[in-house]
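Hi team,

As requested, here is the filled-out complex form for the zinc ion run. I kept the field names the same as last time so the parser does not choke. Let me know if anything looks off before we queue the next batch.

— J.
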Amino acid sequence: MALKYCQGTACHTYTTKDRLRGTKDNKTFQTRRRSSFYYGGNFCSLNCQNDWFSDFGNKAIDHFGRLTEPKHLTEDNAWVKDYDWRVTADDSHRYFFVNKVTRERRPLTEEQYHDNNYNLNERIT
Ligand SMILES: [Zn+2]
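And here is what came back:
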């Protein structure tokens, strides 16, 4: 698996032992490299994620669209997936959609539950 660098803008300034890399007389504190990152998939720590957001958050929000009015939770966009833990006769889970406004439940298969594209909410952009 390919290694990638933490995207934290100040990762190399945190002087931990594991960041000190290089040959004997030429060691420097360096940006961390990993095969995967727990924080947002791109950062080695919450500090690094916060550093990035502090430097680029405003630009990113302006680029992808800043909210200028509140979003509203309505019947049409209130569907979420959930399940009851081991409730069937054979001890498996019962999957369902539940509408957070009306409390209506609609059954789901396990496949539909895990399918991120399967959704009942209306797209409102
Ligand atoms: Zn980092």
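Two things worth flagging: Helices lie at 46-64, 110-114. DSSP finds two helices and seven strands in the chain.

Thanks,
J.
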